[in-house]
Amino acid sequence: MAYQKKEQGARDDRGEFAAHRRPDLPAGDKIDINNIALLKHFVTEYGKILPARVTGVTAMQQRQIKKGVRRARNMGLMA
């Protein structure tokens, strides 16, 4: 079997308990879609939007990121 389920309470490489941590976002749940510096943290170097499971944002924040990145691309602020 290729997929093995981790034991509950498994430790990471440093010996600490693995915990899913959300990234440091601005105060509140609202993401400013005009903040290009913030949006660049959620885009790869090739311009692809990272999925929420990788970045750890909520579904609503992911939709705001998607909207902001697409608008920034259309305005020519992001490549």
Helix-strand layout with pairing:
Blueprint: H1 36-39, H2 52-55, H3 59-75
Outline the structure in words.
It is a single chain. The chain is mainly α and 79 residues long. It has a domain at 36-75. Helices cover 32% and strands 0% of the residues. The chain is built from three helices and no strands. It has helices at 36-39, 52-55, 59-75. It is globular. 9% of the residues are buried. The mean pLDDT is 78.
Which key terms come to mind for this protein?
79 residues; globular
Helix content bin: 25-40%
Q: Could you give the count of β-strands? A: 0
Low-confidence stretches: none
Mean pLDDT: 78
Number of alpha- plus pi-helical segments = 3
Largest sheet: none
How far do the termini sit from each other? 42 Å
Q: What is the percentage of strand-forming residues?
A: under 5%
Topology as a string of helices (H) and strands (E): HHH
Query: Structural class of the secondary structure composition?
Result: mainly alpha
- Give the overall silhouette: globular
Radius of gyration: 16 Å
